[in-house]
Structure formats: structure tokens, C-alpha cells
């Protein structure tokens, strides 16, 4: 091989490495809004956690449950219009706008931390950003990523969400004041605005708006100087045309199109249902209370930090595995282990309630069960439902991801608001119900969810239509 050929091959490899780095960087910085969302999710402890804020202890358990769950109402409101708004104004611009309701919400919580009503208002504002982020971040990540990297950039959303939850757990454990805790949380969305502003707009959005030169420049910055932009434009245009034809039901009665759309909706909503009905959201939110109930001698704050570390580890593992062994395989492993853990929790609380675990070293086993549950959840069922719809349909259609996210947050609110009441009165029945629903979720994934790893949307569409 001549030196000239070796030089060209070396340049190609360097260019490919640089393009991968830039795609990952853009998706990673967009996911800083997920980090902000994680601080909101884990930012309030049902057992207090801020002893210097004496006035907060005067709230009733029901009032505290509203403060904890109110952000979910904001999230379901924020998620619904998010797809259309990000399409109209641009993914990047919309994501930057989302930081401001969160900043405003944290500031309201900071200034009026002893007011129940205003604390709820602040948490609601934060929730608006959280819900919209669950739609906008996966859409942006999908737009800037090649088919080969789409899985890893999709997992960034969940990875950074876990990082935000751990950040909140550690800050809550170290800081004695709720006000100090809020100050360190509000820094995250401010930092996001500063660093994400230097990233490019979605090239798909630029193409859709007719800004072809900017779209070309952005694609070449993301994919490399030798990237065939015209071929990518043709692929986007063909995908948009197929989507338009398949949705014109009044003019086109083709059975395959209707079959495809019903399958997409069924898969998307089925995965969301399996995700939420695993009970993971409530377990994360009420993890310190679960340790108090189990009488396991582990300080609640320490237990939360341990769970936060395992969450981050599980999501990091998913990042490295998702493009190697595939989405469907990870979902099956995740769902199967979750089901086993929920069965073990049912047995644990049955033995605990009967007194069989009194003065037993097996009390600490609840930590092992919960950590295994969390790792399994973050391995597949946590991250994949958030971005699976962006793989099944063109990302310029934000309607389905928005509706799916709204459905997800609606389920989350119902579970979050009722979890504490049910787990206090009938913990065994609750865990048994979650276990039964997880079995159904596993069967659903086994028979209905296709593998989308390293496949273009056209290939996925053909496979779904022919199944």
C-alpha cells in the first residue's frame, strides 16, 4: 500500500472518529436538561431530609405527597405540545427555552420555601420543563445521530437523568438546608443554557425549513467533510413523503399503512405502560421511605445515594451495550430481572410484616433487591421507551412522542399520588400487583417489540408492515 493511500485511510479514520465525537457531544450537551430534570425528580424527600427547615415538618403527609407529585402534573402538561413546538421553532432553540421555566420554578421554591402553595407552584413550573424535555431531548439526539450511534445518543437522556438524581441525593445528604439545596439545583439549567448555546440546530429541522446551506454545514460538522449530504436529504425527503402518504387516510386506504401505524402506536404505548407499571418511578421517589419501612438499619440518605450510584451504573452499562446486543434483548433482560425483583420484594415485605425478619441479618437484603431492580430498570426499560418512537417514525413528526410522553406522565402521577397510601396499608398486595404487571410487560416485549438496532427507519417500517 502506498504512503498516499495510507495517509488517506488515516485521514478517513480520523474524520470518522471526529464525527462520532461531535454527534455524541451534541447529544450529551442536550441531555444536560435531563440532568436538570433529575434534580427535580429527586429533589424532594417524603421523610424531610432538611432538619434545619423546621417549618416544613408542619405539613401533613397528604400535603407532602402533593409537593412530591405536583411536578408530574406539570410534566404531562409540558409534554403534550412539545413535539409540535420543537418542530416549529427548532429543537435547539426550544430546548434552551425549556431551561427558563425550570429556573423560575426553582427560584419560586427558594424564595417561598415555607409556603405550601408556592412550593407547589414552583415544582409545577419545574415539571413543565421536565415533561417537555422527555420529548425534545430524544428528538434532538435522534436528529444529530447516524443510525449506528442512535442507540447510544438515545440512552444519554436516561443516563443524565440518573446523574441528576444522584446529584440531588448527594446534595440532599450533605446540605442541612432546603434553601442551600435549591441553590445548587438551579445552577444546572443555568449551566445548560451557557454550554448548549454553542451547539448547532438540528439539521433535519433546518432542511425542513428550507435552510439547505445551514443544514449542509451542520450535517458536515456532525458527520464529516466527506459525508454525502444530498443522499441524506433524499432519505429525509423520502421518509417525509412516506409518512405523509401513510397519514392521508381519506385519500389512501392502503391496509399496510394502517397496519403499520397501529403497530407503532401499540408498541410505543405498550412499552410506556410496561415502564411505568414496573413501579420504578415510585421506588426512586420514595426510596428513603422504603428503607424506613423495612427497618433495615441503613440511614435513608445513605441508602438513596447507594441507589443513585447503581442507577447511574445501570444506565452507563446500557450506553455500552445498546448498540452491541440490541434494544429488544436489553428490554427482555431488564423486564425479566425486574419481575424477579418485584416477586422478591413481595416475599420480603410478607416476611417483614410477620416478624420473621426481626433481628435477622436478612433485613439488609432489601438494599440488594432494590439496587438490582434499579440496575435492571436502567439497563433497558428505563431508557428505551423514551426514544423508541423516534426510531419508528420520522422525527419531524413530534405528535406521537408527545402523546406517548403525556400518557407516561399521567400514569406516573396516578402511581406517585397513590403509592405512599397503598404501600402503607397493603404493601404485599402492591408489590404483587407490580410483579404481575411486569410479567405481562415481559410477554408483550417477547412477542410484539421488534429489534431496531442499526436499522434505518425505512427498514424498520418494512419489517413492521410485513410482520
Automatic annotation (TrEMBL):
Protein name: Facilitated trehalose transporter Tret1-like isoform X2
Subcellular location as annotated: Cell membrane
Keywords, in A-Z order: Cell membrane, Membrane, Sugar transport, Transmembrane, Transmembrane helix, Transport
MF term (GO), any: transmembrane transporter activity
Topology in membrane: Multi-pass membrane protein
Organism: Sipha flava
Record bears the keyword Magnesium: no
Occurrences of domain Major facilitator superfamily (MFS) profile (ranges): 23-453
Upper lineage: Eukaryota, Metazoa, Ecdysozoa, Arthropoda, Hexapoda
Amino acid at each position: 500500500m502506498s504512503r498516499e493511500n495510507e495517509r488517506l485511510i488515516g485521514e478517513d479514520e480520523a474524520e470518522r472518529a471526529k464525527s462520532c465525537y461531535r454527534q455524541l457531544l451534541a447529544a450529551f450537551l442536550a441531555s444536560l436538561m435531563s440532568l436538570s430534570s433529575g434534580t427535580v425528580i429527586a429533589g424532594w424527600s417524603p421523610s424531610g431530609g432538611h432538619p434545619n427547615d423546621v417549618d416544613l415538618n408542619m405539613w401533613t403527609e397528604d400535603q407532602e405527597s402533593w409537593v412530591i407529585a405536583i411536578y408530574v402534573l406539570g410534566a404531562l402538561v409540558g409534554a403534550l405540545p412539545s413535539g409540535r413546538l420543537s418542530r416549529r421553532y427548532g429543537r435547539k432553540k426550544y430546548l434552551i427555552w425549556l431551561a427558563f421555566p425550570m429556573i423560575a420554578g426553582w427560584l419560586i421554591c427558594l424564595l417561598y420555601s415555607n409556603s405550601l402553595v408556592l412550593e407547589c407552584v414552583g415544582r409545577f413550573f419545574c415539571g413543565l420543563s421536565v415533561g417537555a424535555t422527555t420529548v425534545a431531548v430524544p428528538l434532538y439526539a435522534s436528529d444529530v445521530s447516524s443510525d449506528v450511534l442512535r442507540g447510544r445518543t438515545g440512552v444519554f437522556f436516561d443516563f443524565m437523568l440518573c446523574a441528576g438524581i444522584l446529584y440531588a441525593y448527594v446534595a440532599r445528604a450533605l446540605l442541612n438546608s432546603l434553601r442551600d439545596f435549591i441553590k445548587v439545583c438551579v445552577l444546572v439549567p443555568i449551566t445548560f443554557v451557557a454550554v448548549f448555546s454553542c451547539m448547532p440546530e438540528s439539521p433535519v429541522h433546518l432542511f425542513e425549513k428550507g435552510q439547505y446551506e445551514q443544514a449542509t454545514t451542520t450535517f458536515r460538522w456532525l458527520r464529516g467533510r466527506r459525508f454525502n449530504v444530498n443522499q441524506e436529504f433524499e432519505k429525509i425527503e423520502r421518509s417525509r413523503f412516506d409518512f405523509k402518504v401513510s397519514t392521508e387516510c381519506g385519500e389512501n386506504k392502503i391496509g399496510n399503512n394502517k397496519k403499520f401505524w397501529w403497530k407503532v402506536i401499540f408498541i410505543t404505548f405498550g412499552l410506556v405502560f410496561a415502564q411505568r407499571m414496573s413501579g420504578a418511578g415510585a421506588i426512586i421517589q420514595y426510596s428513603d421511605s422504603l428503607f424506613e419501612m423495612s427497618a433495615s438499619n441503613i440511614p435513608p440518605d445513605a441508602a438513596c445515594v447507594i441507589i443513585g450510584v447503581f442507577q447511574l451504573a445501570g444506565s452507563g452499562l446500557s450506553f455500552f451495550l445498546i448498540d452491541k446486543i440490541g434494544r429488544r434483548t436489553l428490554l427482555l433482560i431488564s423486564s425479566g430481572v425486574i419481575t424477579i425483583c418485584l416477586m422478591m420484594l413481595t416475599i420480603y415485605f410478607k416476611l417483614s410484616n410477620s416478624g420473621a425478619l426481626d433481628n435477622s441479618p436478612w433485613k439488609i437484603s432489601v438494599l440488594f433487591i432494590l439496587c438490582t431492580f434499579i440496575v435492571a430498570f436502567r439497563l433497558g426499560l428505563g431508557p428505551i421507551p423514551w426514544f423508541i418512537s423516534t426510531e419508528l417514525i420520522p422525527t419531524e413528526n413530534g405528535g406521537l412522542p408527545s402523546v406517548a410522553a403525556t400518557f407516561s406522565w399521567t400514569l406516573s402521577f396516578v402511581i406517585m399520588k397513590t403509592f405512599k397510601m397503598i404501600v402503607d396499608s397493603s404493601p404485599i398486595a402492591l408489590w404483587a400487583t407490580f410483579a404481575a404487571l411486569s410479567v405481562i410487560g415481559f410477554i408483550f416485549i417477547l412477542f410484539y417489540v421488534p429489534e431496531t438496532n442499526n436499522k434505518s427507519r425505512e427498514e424498520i417500517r418494512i419489517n413492521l408492515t410485513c410482520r
